[in-house]
Amino acid sequence: MIFIYVGMATLIILIILFANRRYMHRLVERRISDYQNSLVTRHVGEVENIYKEMRGWRHDYHNHVQLMKAYLAQNQIAEADAYLNSLDTDLMLVDTIHKTGNVMIDAILNSKISLAQSKEIAVNAKAIVPKKLVVQPVDLCVIIGNLLDNAIEACGKLSDAKNRFIRVYIGVHKEMLYISVSNSTGVEVKKSGLVYLTTKATGSHGFGLVRIDKIVEKYNGFVDRDHEEGVFATEVMLPL
Description:
By secondary structure, this protein is α+β, with helices and mostly antiparallel strands. It folds into 2 domains: 2-50 and 98-239, Heat Shock Protein 90, CATH 3.30.565.10; 60-97. The protein is 57% helix and 18% strand. It has 6 helices and 7 strands. It has helices spanning 2-59, 61-73, 77-95, 103-118, 137-156, 207-218; strands at residues 122-127, 165-173, 176-184, 191-192, 195-196, 222-228, 231-239. The strands form 2 sheets. A 5-stranded mixed beta sheet has the order 1-2-3-7-6, covered by helices on one side. Strands 4-5 form a two-stranded antiparallel ribbon. A hairpin with a 2-residue loop joins β6 (222-228) and β7. α1 crosses α4 (103-118) and α2 packs antiparallel against α3 (77-95). It is elongated, with a radius of gyration of 25 Å. Mean pLDDT is 77; it is low at 201-205.
């Protein structure tokens, strides 16, 4: 009889521990998701402000032309030249913005590229996103954001800025949405079996890799990671 009670007590304890473990896992996932979603929302606001500035510049185009004509009519060449230079500077700022047409993706992409460039990382990016997507924009932003966060951190470990680079390509390949991010890295890439391990300071940062894998699995997609000396690359394919 005692053995029965002990067995039941052990079973109850195991059930409680399992339930608590599942609850904590879901709680951590929810908090990470909420945090990343809040970041995406903030970046959306930033890019929407940029779009407003671009629309404002187009609206003022007529006034710019009229002023240039006035300078030329009065033979004020120096003034016209200075004004043209100021407009050229504005255009260069606009041209540095990556515009896929999807506001949320533009937000996270431009935000991360700007962060990389501020850390003296050379970025080569091309992104073409179809208008119709099966993947939710928030999920796509989480994938892109985590990939670029990892790439920026890896590049940051290189002491010589000349060796830092990130290449980003987003487009359509074989009727799939294709995302490729490759970067230089200054750390030894660690692997356990087929799984790459995070090289970040604390293990909790590994949630970024887990989030990517779970979202890809959610849409029955495919993720492939590879590395060679000094370079790490990730490819993600998601159904359209």
